[in-house]
Amino acid sequence: MSKILLTLLYILVLQSNNFAQTTKLNIKIDDKIETIYSIAFLNNYFLIGPHDNVYKRSLKKDFNELKNHRAVQLFDSLVNSSDFVGNKIVEWIMQFDSFPELSQVKSTIESTKFSENDSLLYEFKREMIKFYYDSTFQKFLTKVSVVNDKVINQVNKSNTINKLPFYLEEYYGKRLDSYNLILSPFLHTGGFNVEMISLNKKKEIFSIIGPNGEIDFVPYFDKDYMETDMVLHEFGHSFVNPITDKYIKEIETIKDRYYTKELRETGNKNGYDEWRYVFNEIVLRATTIKITEQYFGKSKSEDNLKEEISNGFGMVNAVVGILGYYEKNREKYQTFDTFFPVLIEELKKN
Prior knowledge:
The chain folds into 2 domains: 25-223, no CATH class; 247-349, no CATH class. The strands form 2 sheets. Strands 1-3-5-4-2 form a 5-stranded mixed sheet, with helices on both faces. A two-stranded antiparallel ribbon has the order 6-7. By secondary structure, it is an alpha/beta fold. It has 16 helices and 7 strands.
């Protein structure tokens, strides 16, 4: 066997070992998230999920007096007077360590900045700590702690949930420092992806997911929904977003060809009001479908593709077709980043 071939095999083994040691997926229900969403629930926040469960029933029936807490009033003021909604709420709360201090130990990776000099946020943080330590809320936390264990155990029964970081890293050809899946019984069906920078300058990825149902009033996270529809998609943002940011000029060159009136309307309905964000979402949905095909089967991936088309993201089909070339030529394109210019050029030909 030639020295060149031996060297190539050695490199492949090293790469294989690197991905075999994929970063662990941390799964939990977070006290900070549940405290702020408990406040949001008491405020009738619009992104609280519709599914009835023991958390909502208990808070409403046995601990409804908390509705008059100052923290609930301040939350209402924040939501109605600023852009303190959606993932911004999660970004803000995930900056801090645990109660009681809630000291800032992380910073947001995006341009969003939260200043302690913001008097309303500062007061809300102070009142939220009081809310957490209110004897009534502590009784609520004690009551649902057993349910927390049931929810986490149900998700952990899957034999693929902890393999998702490997699937992502293998497909995109890149490794991340930290994967954190936070289950939120209060949140709507769906979720948020946020990226934080720790004190040691490492990027930490958080995917906050709400249940898509309940069984006997215990929040339920269906395996297919959780893994292929949500986790692969939400964590996928941390791989795809930096690439589309890098190639923003190239993405603009195909805008006139693909950004139709219909696609613009679909994007607006889903909260993407610019071509760059619509295209980012299309690429992410396409890569998620291809990862699903590799590890969960063609039938599931075809179902997901049909759903994307029916939802108005027909362009996903074109991207899925081109990704087949990426998968067959991984020796040439070891990372999705290196393949991305090819994707743009192929889309120009369609």
